[in-house]
TrEMBL record, chain A:
Residues 5-246 form the ABC transporter domain. It comes from the Bacteria. Pfam families: ABC_tran. InterPro entries: AAA+_ATPase, ABC_AA/LPS_Transport, ABC_transporter-like_ATP-bd, ABC_transptr_urea_ATP-bd_UrtD, P-loop_NTPase. One of its GO terms (molecular function) is ATP binding. Keywords: ATP-binding, Nucleotide-binding, Transport. It comes from Octadecabacter dasysiphoniae. This is Urea ABC transporter ATP-binding protein UrtD.
Automatic annotation (TrEMBL), chain B:
Pfam families: BPD_transp_2. It comes from Octadecabacter dasysiphoniae. The keyword Transport applies. InterPro entries: ABC_transp_permease, ABC_UrtB_bac, BCAA_transport_permease. The keyword Cytoplasm does not apply. This is Urea ABC transporter permease subunit UrtB.
UniProtKB/TrEMBL annotation, chain C:
NCBIfam families: urea_trans_UrtC. Its main location: membrane. It is found in: Cell membrane. It is a multi-pass membrane protein. Keywords: Cell membrane, Membrane, Transmembrane, Transmembrane helix. It comes from the Bacteria. The keyword Cell membrane applies. The gene is urtC. Coiled coil: none annotated. The chain crosses the membrane at residues 12-33, 45-65, 71-92, 142-163, 170-188, 220-240, 267-287, 293-312, 319-336, 356-377. The keyword tRNA-binding does not apply. This is Urea ABC transporter permease subunit UrtC. InterPro entries: ABC_transp_permease, ABC_transptr_urea_perm_UrtC, LivM-like. Signal peptide: none annotated. The lineage of its organism: Bacteria, Pseudomonadati, Pseudomonadota, Alphaproteobacteria, Rhodobacterales.
Amino acid sequence: MSTLLEVSGVSVNFDGFKAINNLSIQIAEPEMRAVIGPNGAGKTTFMDIVTGKTKPDEGRVIWGEKSVSLLGMNESQIAQAGIGRKFQKPTVFEAQTVRENIVMALKNPRRPFDVLFKRGGNDAEDRVRAISDDIGLTGALDQTSGALSHGQKQWLEIGMLLAQDPRLLLVDEPAAGMSPAEREQTTDILVRAAKTRAVVVVEHDMEFVRRLNCKVTVLHQGSVLAEGSLDHVTKNKDVVDVYLGR
Amino acid sequence: MRHAFLALMILMGSVLAVSAQTLQPILQTHTDEIASPSRNSVSVALDDLVASGVPQVTDFLEQWVERNIWQRDDGVFYIAVEDGDELTLTDIDTGAQSMAPAAGFTQLRPNGGVRRVIGTALVQFQLLDPDLTRRETAVASIARRPEAGQLAPLLASIDGETDAALKARKVQLANFMSARFADSPADRIAAITSLSADTSVEARAVLNQILSTSSGVAERAPDGNIAMIHDPMLDPEASYGLLVEADLAPPRQTPSDIRTTLEANIDADTIAGFAVAEMNDPAKREAAYAALSDAGLAPLLITAPVRDAALSAHVFYDLYDEDDVEITAAASIALRSVETRVSTAQAVDLTLDALSLASIFFLAAIGLAITFGVMGVINMAHGEFIMMGAYTGFVVQQFIPNYTVSIIVALPLAFAVTFAAGVAMERLVIRHLYHRPLETLLATFGISIALQQLAKNIFGTQARPLTSPDWLAGAWVLNDVIQISYIRIAIFVLALIFLGLILYILKRTRLGLEVRAVTQNPGMASSMGINPDRINMMTFGLGSGIAGIAGVAIGLYAKVTSEMGSDYIVQSFMTVVVGGVGNVWGTLAGAAMIGFGQKGIEWLNPSNTLAAQTYMILFVILFIQFRPKGIVALKGRAAGD
Amino acid sequence: MQNTFIGKNPSVLWFLLGLSVFTVVVTLCSEALGADIISTSFLKTLGKTLCLCLVAIAMDVVWGYCGILSLGHFAFFGIGGYAIGMWLMYARTEDIVVASLQNATLPPTPDEVTTAIGSQIFGVVGSSDFPMIWALSHSLTLQLLAVVLVPGLLALVFGWLAFRSRVTGVYLSILTQAMTLALSLYFFQNDTGLRGNNGLSGLQNVPGLEAVSQATLSLWFFWGSAFALGAGYVLFAWIVSGKLGSVIRAIRDNEARVRFLGYHVESYKLFVFTVTAMVAGIAGALYYPQAGIINPAEIAPIASIYLAVWVAIGGRGRLYGAVIGAAVVSLMSSWFTGGAAPDINLGFYVVQWTDWWLVLLGLTFVVVTLFFPKGIGGVFDLIAKRKGDTA
């Protein structure tokens, strides 16, 4: 287990409001990590920083064995470097079929001419099939993804993440709006993924986090409040204060 | 007061004193010089007339110049008006009128040169004339065509001048004339130096006249006050042209001269031994011509070396018409100082121009900025609302002939008309397209096409005038360089009023509060009981109404046509985009930047306003690179993505 | 692969079939073959319409598929026209000048020829010097390259600047409109060296083909336009149906998400913007020899907006929709504004179509945007759906 992502001393200001304040987190590979915290704790902003959507005012974000800084890269470069992100709201391309969505995400050369002439995509069909099996959407491959149920869209998005074959998955509230059965299936997908890569899950639902059975980081007001197993952090007095507002 | 009274007394006294004298006897002593004057002989008579101090002299001289003096066969002079075969005679001294047949009289017809001499003499009388208008006419006529002889009478008339304004004018004119005509170089230099702070066109003309040069070419530089020696090699062709003009060199052959010469010397199929068929090669043509020239059949070919040799054997110079070196030096210094002042004044003038252009852009764009900023709606028909406002003004003027009243009526009416049109458009079209900005752009564009053609069908294709009231017609003249038309000042003021009004509405009223709430967070605003539909409707109406008023303002200084909207729409969009969306100050900054930018580019390349617009747009495209959200950008989360 | 491409895109086959039948029928009816059913001028109108259809599908790809509402593609069309027009005008004037100098006593020097051509071409703007911009006009090959490269390069530079700073949506539309305005103002200036508002004329005469009658020449151009449209249709169908099409549609729907998938969105937009601009240039180069004249008014922003109108009315996001829109609206426009449409007498007012067509078009456009966002092409969906229901 080696460190894959190192965020250290990062701060972000939005018009005087410190969304992230001297935040430091390390993620190893492979690892499953849950990030929890009350609203406005900076969970989403943390993801924005790692994926290049937001540029921090100070601090370092270091990636991989070669210790590359992610701060100088744009969104697509970061994604190509091996960081996949799933948004809170499922954002699949609803006008296109499930297959098209997955094919688009498959790890292949990403430049326009590569794509136009379909370079390096010979085993595409097999990989699409493997992923659709994984997320249970093989039967719906040629359906328009707009016609999927909410839970299926969430899985499709996770499937697209897996198709990217990233080393780090950032998953924002995957279980939101899912039925209990769907949640269980989602947990399985994530746990399986975490065997070979790093997975960071941001989640509100404690039951869901408990089922992930992993190390937990608690954020509060833009910095780390506590870290450790779920049982450990829930016994932490600060965490209890923050969550119950005492 | 006492001085004036005293002056009046003296004037009346002198009139009484001389009225007893008569002019006719003096005229009779110079009858030959007056009846058939030459430029030299007439001055003798004039000197006597002037010296006599008889008041009738002025009138006589004026009528003489006008060719209204007739001489009876016995030698007596009369002022006469021809009426068929009859003459209406006026006695020169008494003013008594009578009639007589024209047959016994001869008209005096002084030639142009004589008339000018008489005019000069006349001026000194006119300068002292009791009638202010006459004195003013006299001063103006001197200013039009200053002559050395007029300086002394002008100076003499200054002290007695009772009208303060005319006195100042006389002093100024005398100063201009001293600079050119004063006897002592020291006086001239003093006058010239005093001009260095005067930016008027007249003063600059005086200095330029003193510094007038004539250019020439000679084998060696002449003695005299040389302004400049030119290097002929800077433009050898033009310099050689001067040599040719001065008959100092033979003309250079043009390619067509060479061709004509060659054609004239065709001998069967050859020219001086060269085949005619080869003559499509310029080198061969030259060789053939050289051969002809060697044979004496053509003048020597002026090649570049020949030309350069001729050029280097001559001096190309500019010679001052003024011989005194010190005077030209003083004038150069004064002119340079004047030019510095003039360019400062020009910069001020340009700034004012840019300011008024910016106000127009602001007026045209602010309505757009409001609808764009608050609703995220691009209204391509905004330009047509401007046009609608202008046509409203035009229609109002058809019913109310008084221009002042009609403008006062037209402004609110234009607002009302375009407000209604805007509300109708929002209700019928835009409401159904929220969150589909590109579709809104296209739908409003469809409306714009329809409105434009509709206006064409109603009002025709020719431009319609929107006449401004007289009090807006002139220009505010600061000096000869800085002037700005009242209409532009009015537009500037209008823009200021609207800036204030819009800031007031947005910052101080309930409507403004609700508008800002909807801009920042429509969902939250509606959950707090603000009806976003109503707000959007009002906002759109307001934005459109302002476009209508802008239309009246623009119509006043430009023509009203069905296409006037499309002339402003792209600039308005640029203004909004450059300034930053959703912010009144941003629009102001954008308007200022585009107005000043365009004027600045026009100043760099004054011949070409099309180019100025082209470069301005390119500049805006580049500017967007560096500040994609405009000059005044909303920051942080409020800006969204 | 070709099999699967056609298999996946049956509309391409139908389109090519329709286009071929149309071409053959028009050819058989043309004056050139002795049948007087279609006049030469109407044949030219049809040929021009095909070119408009070509630029419309380019517009559809950039707007309907990639979501960039470009208000500049008709300017690229115009630039293509200017590029070929320069050669046509230069070469034809050269022919005339050389012929007229044939009988001169001395054979003309190259300089004399150039000056004579220059004064012929630029006499209207009071000049006889060749501006720099005409440096390549003597060469058909180079000007043909310019037809593609100049719009392509312009689109590349402009697109790079605009996309790089992430100007999107209506901002981008306005920026492209500004670019178009700048271009048309540039072409309007005499200093530019393209004869200012006179534009280029006499383009219907092709140098070297003086012996061919206009009837035959028009037919050739019609064939050329039909071929270009067919080829363009296949090219774009191939581009949009593959994975690249999938990516650009995804960019249209959610640009940020595509970025997080690791695609460099700007490159894709730039690719689409540039390729469509080049096709627009080709369409223009075929159009203007049939029109005979080009001037800067053709490039004005309004023309690009009409292009968007055609595509919207035809139905964007489907290539045949753009073709239908361009063909129907442009043919109707020339019918109504040409004075051929009968006036309607309302008793109290006579509706003259030359005056009222634009009003009708504008309002139609509003109605289409409001109620039929899929345009005429949407009707095909309804038919297909009904078929599916009955089957």
